[in-house]
Specification:
The chain has 424 residues and is mainly alpha-helical. It has a domain of 199 residues: Orthogonal Bundle (Preprotein translocase SecY subunit). The protein has 17 helices and five strands. The two termini are 21 Å apart.
Length: 424
């Protein structure tokens, strides 16, 4: 490993790219600690610590939401925008055609995503401010219309700023910029959580701490295995003779990943799970008794507990199948194989191949879906098993961290390999 790091450091261009990315991540962490004026940060942090769902959203913002900073929404609006466009490409033929036009088409789609990010960020900023004002507790004092508009504009600009930083990182081809920003936010919270754990550490909790670490190591190993796991479908290409040259006649494989959807299903599920308590907050003080009680039940239920965990688990499993259907098209793959003279041994090209690919995909996606579901509710399971509330083992956090690290390492290694071929 040290030899590989030394090799990376010796390549000037690669070294400068890594330092550039680290500099941008440092700027992000500085911005995450610049709060919007007029907020009681102490009351805000106490509120986030008592709400598991908002704590999960805070994780995606790298702790910036808990600080009510200028980048409190993180890259969430941009992620939401990209998900919306991926769904729209399924029902709008012009967008689907645009996605097939290569780099030029992708640039147009990216521009549309950036434009949509602006109103989404403004809407989320207004919703969050309204939600926190409903809580009382002195989190947000009374705001004038000018202060409210200023806060919304500032938060929206912060999200656009992070989106721009993410694109700058992606241009260097040292990992995905948006993913690295989320990764930096997650990792930055680890030291403070460890400090809080040892500040209230009791010798009687030593067994719980050892159990926590053991489950953490097993979870990390499981995340690596599932993230890298794939089913290789054998593919053969027919031999073709043109003149004195022979084409094809080779055997290869078609990889089907166990977790094709990545962390997207969890983000989908969060988007739905967060709606009921947010809407319920507006009716907690309703004059209609039954409506107020129903709203209070929703708020209490979705702060954590068995019902919340079960609903969250089911949504993640359902969205894993849904999103895999969106991105995996067996009919198109079978058609491309047939055009290129490829076939799966023992199967006729065309419909039979597509049916087989769909069958295999559904089987391996089941394992990936159940894994993502367990990962999503892992914090609740860990807190119940160890009674450690200051150090939270977030399965979603581990999934993002491991995926980003593996992807970044692969991109760095590919650049090193490219330089070996080019004689650098």
């Amino acid at each position: 490993m040290w030899e590989k790091l030394a090799q990376i450091w010796r390549v000037k261009e690669l070294r400068n790219k890594i330092l550039y990315v680290l500099g941008i991540l440092f700027i992000f962490r500085v911005a995450a600690h610049i709060p919007i004026p007029g907020i009681n940060v102490t009351s805000l942090r106490n509120f986030f610590e008592s709400n598991q769902l908002l704590g999960l959203l805070n994780m995606f913002s790298g702790g910036a939401m808990q600080n009510f900073s200028i980048v409190m929404l993180g890259v969430g609006p941009y992620i939401t925008s990209s998900i919306i466009f991926q769904l729209l490409m399924m029902i709008i033929p012009s967008l689907e055609q645009l996605s097939k036009e290569g780099e030029a088409g992708q640039q147009k789609l990216n521009q549309y995503m950036r434009i949509l990010t602006v109103p989404l960020a403004a809407l989320q900023a207004y919703s969050m401010i309204t939600l926190l004002k409903q809580q009382g507790q002195g989190i947000i004092p009374s705001m004038s219309h000018f202060q409210l508009v200023t806060a919304i504009i500032t938060i929206t600009a912060g999200s656009i700023f992070l989106m721009w930083l993410g694109e700058l990182i992606s241009e260097k081809k040292i990992g995905n910029g948006i993913s690295l920003i989320i990764f930096a936010g997650i990792v930055a919270r680890v030291p403070s959580e460890i400090q809080q754990t040892f500040a209230v550490f009791d010798v009687s909790k030593i067994f719980s701490l050892v159990l926590f670490l053991a489950i953490g190591l097993v979870t990390i190993a499981g995340v690596v295995i599932v993230t890298e796991g794939q089913r290789n479908i054998p593919v053969s290409y027919a031999r073709r003779i043109r003149g004195n040259r022979v084409y094809g006649g080779v055997s290869t494989h078609l990889p089907l990943r166990v977790n094709q959807a990545g962390v997207i299903p969890i983000i989908f599920a969060i988007s739905l799970v967060v709606v009921p308590p947010i809407v319920a907050q507006f009716f907690v003080n309703s004059k209609t008794v039954w409506l107020a009680h129903l709203a209070q039940w929703f708020v209490a239920t979705f702060r954590g507990g068995p019902i919340y965990s079960i609903v969250y688990f089911i949504l993640v499993v359902v969205f894993t199948y849904f999103y895999t259907t969106v991105i995996f098209h067996p009919d198109q793959i079978a058609e491309n194989l047939q055009k290129q003279g490829g076939f799966i041994p023992g199967l006729r090209p065309g419909r039979n191949t597509a049916e087989y690919l769909n069958y295999v995909s559904n089987r391996i996606v089941l394992a990936g879906a159940l894994f993502l579901g367990v990962i999503a509710v892992l914090p609740s399971i860990m807190q119940s098993a160890t009674n450690i509330t200051t150090l939270v083992l977030g399965g979603t956090s581990l999934l993002i961290v491991v995926s980003v690290v593996l992807d970044t390492v692969k991109q760095v290694e590919s650049q090193l390999t490219m330089r070996d071929y080019e004689g650098f």
